[in-house]
Fold GDSL esterase/lipase.
Amino acid sequence: MVSINQFPVAADVHCLQNEPQLHTSRTSNRRIAHTHAQEIRWGHFRGSSWRWRFSPSSAPPAATAGIFSFGDSLTDTENSLRFAATRAGPSSRPPYGETFFRRPTGRASDGRLVVDFIVEALGVHHLTPYLAGKSAEDFQRGVNFAVGGATTLGPDFLKSRGLEPFVPVSFTNQATWFKNVSQLLGSVHSNYRTRIMASSLFIVGEIGVNDYLVAFAGNTTVREARTFVPHIVGAVRSVVAEVLAAGARTVLIPGMIPLGCDPHLLALYQSGDHDPASGCIKSLNDLAELHNRALNGMLGELRRAHPGTTILYADLYGAVADLIASPRKYGFRDEPLAACCGGSGAYNFNMTAFCGAAGTAACADPPEYVSWDGVHFTEAANRHTACATLKTNSHPLLNSWTAEARRRIGCAVRLKA
């Protein structure tokens, strides 16, 4: 494994590695909430990095030069595997990655993530994980700063509320990494950096899920968690403003997923206020909707403050909610709240037997499931979300976000008899 000290742009990551080890969860609630961050706590890396290139050779030249992505395990394509203290676990061993890669790659899914499908649809180069890069050449076609288990809010805020983050990585760290990359690109030539920033797509999020899970792990009530919303949205705003100041012209900001439909939270709060139509927990979905309203309000302010830029919103909530409400319409099974991979128990999720552990097994047909491991989505669900994002955000400035781009990743309504 390459030493973190060999990465010229990642000195701050070396400091993070010297943080105290993460504590073992002491309560059932803590173990449940920790599952969203398990791939960073248990990740490993062997030999040289896997550099997957998904784009078909027949894809036309991309109008978008590359993608710069920030986020958590819903977007992390390898960074979590680069931390020395977090080298073993579910996403680094079978059955993770079985559907597309045929082996684990550190992605928290059976296959590709939403960002992988967007990369493929736009015909751009696969993103370099930040912790795998060394030179300006490594980063010129895009970077993935996302880390599984990352929070939007920093440890100081969380600890002021009596909470302990899952991992020592927040949006502040990812913003610092972005500055490092920007400086490295600028060291080649200022115009070089300017061209890359102006012609790339910046995806800021999804981020915030772990902030709420950290809160729930500390026995914070949903009502109290609602007070986190302005702080989380403010942190997202800071990162968006930072990439715009660096020269970004096109920024996509994904919203919050429907928290109340996650199998691990459903298993935790079985006595919650379930919606009779969807089976999801209403108070948790209300929290997600509050988050998204605040996020959209903030994005409106940024659009007014930055005319001439394209600031887009990705409705992850709506995309996932559609699958929950009408699974058969999209080719999924009639039990959309059950996990494909896991142990026994409600929703096929067991807090003591997470996907990949002894005694657990993956379902025979992952493409028919929305949830992969009770916390993260299947490749099929991720494809659906990517397709919905591309369809909604076919902005004139993104001339590669066309029907052809969507066709490349198989976007179509799959009707099931």
